[in-house]
Amino acid sequence: MRFPSPGRFKDSGAFRAHWRALTGDLDCVEEPRGSAGALARPIEVFGRKLANRFAIHPMEGWDGTTDGRPSEATLRRWRRFGESGAQLIWGGEAWAVSPEARANPNQLCTTSESAALESLAQLREAVREGARSQGDDPERLVIGLQMTHSGRWARPTSAGPTPLAACADRVLDARFAAGQVHVLSDDELATVIERYVALARLAQRAGFDFVDVKACHGYLIHELLGARERPGAVGGTLKHRARVLLRIVERIREACPALGIGVRMSVGDVAPHRRDAHSGIGRAESDAAPRGFGSELSDGGAFELAEPLQVIDWLAQLGVGAISVTLGSPYTCPHVQRPAAYPPSDGYEPPRDPLLEVARHLRATREIKRAFPSCVIVGAGYTYLQEWLPHVAEHELERGHVDLVGLGRMVLSYPTLPRDALGSRTLERRALCRTFSDCTTAPRNGLPSGCYPLDPHYRNSPDAERLAQVKKLGAVRGDSTGGPLRDVEPALHASVSIAGRELALRDDVLAKEQRAAPTLPRVEPVRLAFAALHVVLRDGASTAPGPGLEDALDWPATLALRTRFDALGFGIGEAMDTAQRFSIGWPVARRLIEECGRLRPKHGFIAGAAADQLARVERRSQLVDAVVEQARLIQSCGGWPILLPQTWLVESRASEDAYVEFYRDVLGALDGPLFVHWLGEMFHAGLRGYFPGRSFERVMALDPAKVRGAKLSLLDRELELRVRRELLARDQIVLTGDDFNFSALIVGDAEQQGPARWTEIGGRRVALGRFSHALLGVLDGCAVPASIALDRLARGYAWRAHELLARCERLGRAVFEPPTQHYKAGLALISWLNGWQDVFALVADEHKTRDLDHYARVAALASEAGALVDSKLAADRLAQLPSLLA
């Protein structure tokens, strides 16, 4: 396994820490309260009062008879639903509205009215029998029937697929049906509508409390919702695409006014994935069109929910009583639809930690619930949580993010989990679904679905032996329709050998989000983010510090780098340590500040004020005057001064009071806004012991109206959190300089990632809250992903910002590894690999302080983070690196 399974965490505290760190915005309770907690809180659904918040989602067994009736195995499964302790049975399993609408030859379906009515009554009674066997009152159950038309995924006989699609899809048509797809006409769809109505009548006669109009997982109604290219009355605009679903609901309401109606809907979808030939990991089809309904905004990120929200609003107006929220399709993106550690035979290794897919389910459900607080919302995606399912479920329920917790695969292995959770009993760990995916692999190879590893009924059956043989031989690695798996598409990349390793570099990691950026409306930033940038040398120029260094710099390339970052939304951190401030000297630093001012960056700039124009400091007043002179220059150029630490104070063994007096004198001679920089010894050995005692706290309290914040470059998260709390009380901000821990610091507390209030700094509106702003050197090396992350944060997608910044953080930890002061080498490397400078060199040959192995790791992590813009150029330049460092 590439990712830690939830079951590997020794206790709830360990899982909670991992869950919060991984997702950034999600949480769980450490001790569920069982019958005293939110899981046992009553709720009214379809006019009936439920005693708890568990729901059983439809679980199809592929084990009915070929004439559409339930077998004993089918009835056993429904009895186990009744034994579960859950009182809402959401649909039981998908019942096809006609024989040709089946997804497999053994799916339940309507062949004749009398046979269907008898079968439906059997299924309902099986659930009630299960409840009675546990001493429960079956009258408390609310039982639904899921109605479906398989559409594109129709496979009603063993002869193979007979797709009845809502629209043409170039990728899916070729991949799953060899182009042999029948697109249903408007007249045929009118017939389909009436078949739904007929089945609803039968369900009501059989005693079902509600019906579920299935609009998810790529089946007919779901595909219609995304049929943007379909001509005519049921394609194109959203109102047209939703017409069939809405008409089904209208007709059922007319025919069965007392029958409850629910809709299970895929509110988010992603491009079809297939298994990468080299890694086995799922990759999106490179030429697939964007999904037409609830499309993914970013790779692994949020979904565009405007259209699903509108459809739900229309459904609510028609009297739909509940919505069951789900994502994706098991045929095209199983890693999204049902997060799992182990892929089925037709699947692929998950491209991301499956817990992140669970998080996507929870976030999508939260969005739906937030928009429709009075509608009953059932959530999904909980099974992969395993031991910690009740912990996360209770948290989501307590916060009002969802109304009921839906379980699917978990009930195949552990049907009484709801009963045990509600009774505060310790969960049976050996019964928990570990997402081995045999319940999918079996039907993909013509066998009934069930939990073969854990359920004795299946484990001891002849089908288990056949399944084991299939897996052992690797036979019939079928696609999602049971057909042979076609060649998979390798990920786009360029390869290079360096430092004894083969690197595969990608430049398309964030391509979808980059393409979408120009189409999104502008939003106000919620974080200041200054990128501290390096300087670029001319080809063939001397790298030695000294009087000739100003001529050695490639000024057009140096300034173009600043223009590029300004265009990406960053402020510029000028003449800081990243620009090798302690090596370049004041003449070069002064020109950098002046040139940056002439650029008039629209996101502003902040620059370091020091005393490096002095050859020697003999007394404190000299130091004060020199810092004030530089700060005034910065202000005259339109920048904000940040007071760099002064090694003279350390060398002279200045006392706490002496530090305070130095800063008091500087502040007294300047106007605001000003910032104070606390730089740790890992960046400069001469700063060991800087800010002794409580000198920093005292300095920051001298004049908060003038000193608006501090940059902390100490690589100490806990210290920054403490300082941040103290400064926030005075409306001062922290500009984090922690290149190891910046992701969580910038995103902020899970309960407050948006602004608590606003202040003004230098004419700019700046957000205040339990988060840090940024002045970071690492941003120099991750321009694109960090820019997208900050945009996502401003749009309210804190979890996506955390994901992207976490990748940048992993890159930062490599770039800034000890000896940390040589981090500029990794940043210059990435700039060179991206073609933003023609020469890979730094002042004082600092680029030669790192070895090839270091650079190989940096390049690999830059690729993973989405920081490379041209993988072929990067590979070509990496191949040149050994000779450049020789």
Provide a brief overview of the structure.
The chain has 33 helices and 27 strands. Helix 3 (113-133) links the parallel strand 5 and strand 6 (142-148).
Descriptive report:
This protein is of the alpha/beta class. The chain contains 33 helices and 27 strands. The strands form 7 sheets. An 8-stranded parallel barrel has the order 3-4-6-9-10-13-14-15, surrounded by 4 helices. Strands 18-19-20-21-22-23-24-27 form an 8-stranded parallel β-barrel, surrounded by 4 helices. Strand 1 (43-45) and strand 2 form a beta hairpin. Helix 5 packs parallel to helix 8, helix 29 runs antiparallel to helix 30 and helix 32 (852-865) packs antiparallel against helix 33. The longest helix has 21 residues, at 113-133.
The total count of strands amounts to: 27
How far apart are the termini?
40 Å
Q: Provide the residue-averaged pLDDT.
A: 92
Helical residues, percent: 25-40%
The residue ranges in which pLDDT falls below 50 over 5 or more consecutive positions are 473-492
Radius of gyration: 31 Å
Question: What's the structural blueprint in terms of helices and strands?
Answer:
Blueprint: H1 12-23, E1 43-45, E2 48-50, E3 54-56, H2 72-83, E4 88-89, E5 94-96, H3 113-133, E6 142-148, E7 164-165, H4 170-177, E8 182-183, H5 186-205, E9 210-215, H6 220-225, H7 238-241, H8 243-255, E10 260-268, E11 273-275, E12 282-284, H9 306-317, E13 322-327, H10 334-337, H11 354-371, E14 376-379, H12 389-398, E15 404-407, H13 409-413, H14 417-422, H15 438-444, H16 456-459, H17 462-473, E16 494-498, E17 501-505, H18 511-516, E18 529-532, H19 549-552, H20 555-567, E19 571-574, H21 581-584, H22 586-599, E20 605-609, H23 620-636, E21 640-643, H24 647-651, H25 656-668, E22 674-679, H26 695-700, E23 707-713, H27 717-728, E24 733-736, H28 742-747, E25 757-761, E26 764-768, E27 773-776, H29 783-794, H30 798-815, H31 824-833, H32 852-865, H33 871-885
Parallel strand pairs: 3-4, 3-15, 4-6, 5-6, 6-9, 7-8, 9-10, 10-13, 13-14, 14-15, 18-19, 18-27, 19-20, 20-21, 21-22, 22-23, 23-24, 24-27
Antiparallel strand pairs: 1-2, 11-12, 16-17, 25-26
